[in-house]
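quick one
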Amino acid sequence: MKGKKLIAVAAGAVMAFTLAACSGSGAGDDSSADATTSAAPAESNGGDAAMEKGTIGVAMPTQTSERWIADGDAVKKGLEAEGYTVDLQFAGDDIPTQSQQIDSMITNGSQLLIVAAIDGTALSGQLEAAAAAGIPVIAYDRLIRDTPNVDYYVTFDNYKVGVQQATSLLVGLGILNEDGSEGDAEGPFNIELFAGSLDDNNAFFFFNGAIDTLQPYIDSGVLVVPSGQTEIEQVATLRWAQETAQKRMEDLLTANYASETLNGVLSPYDGISRGILTALSNAGYGPTIADGMPVVTGQDAEIASVKLINDDVQFATIFKDTRKLAAQAVVGALSFLDGAEPEANDTTTYDNGVKVVPSYLLDSDIVYKDNITSLLVDSGYWTADEVASGVAE
Ligand code: BGC
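structure w/ beta-D-glucopyranose:
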């Protein structure tokens, strides 16, 4: 099986130069392709592989968040430009669906897998099969845990993202200035904390970076958490779901803010931020920060939230340039396919419970209203029209 695959790759490599222009059409956003998979195509694909460079499986968690759609599309385009066929699948945030999609990618003869896991601990069986078939695995954005069979990890400096989220909360409250210097505000300020999904390793990095930054202010009484909920297990949001966050914010307001005013909310992701803002708005806060909407943070620079920042409703978000992440995943994939090891710039931080996974970390930036243009528009991430409308064109 393994030998056959390698021969197919070699034959494909010879022909790819002439055929590259033919590949890449038609696959589109084939998120429904999983419905057609079965165990049978493994053999027939061996023949197809000789006609092209080969297929790469790309597993993304969900299409409900626009970043994963952009990530999937960018990785796909990057690999297609190199002559590969890409099997791109989204799993609707359903763990069995993602496991089954990865099973199919392996049986269908993928040369390499790029996986953004829903549950970072749920893929050990699939990855064992990948390793047995000699298929390299790249963890995309989210670490895959509890398995030796993950070869490379491309992500952002996730602890730093958490520090940036907390920093933006402190800036919004006036405790710090944007340049990092001390602000004039002394507090005390009432805040509440939200974290991401506990099955996503990133949620811990974001929260740890944030709480390490906020803790001194909590200890000194500048920040107060009236609910008392400061442990990640208490503030987590399963699957990062907006409605779950909205419900928790409503419950927090009912239980703790009958006679208190909320000043700020640490939110780890723009979808969660929008759920929080909906709850706050329904409770009579706002509509804008100038009118008393609490300072709400975010992550991903989703267009709906960038508009809210532009409109003075959400205070900040974190911009992680997914184009750069996708490009690094492609670079890593090409190294493996050339029989080389991809470059890592961090070989200590990301222990997945079995081994430290060689990682490539990218930088992120805090987006405030006053730097939307320089960070997001000038870089071509969103257009000025999209920022104004809140809708991706
Ligand atoms: C990603 C974030 C994203 C979150 C929810 C995390 O793993 O790093 O960028 O906001 O998942 O999709």
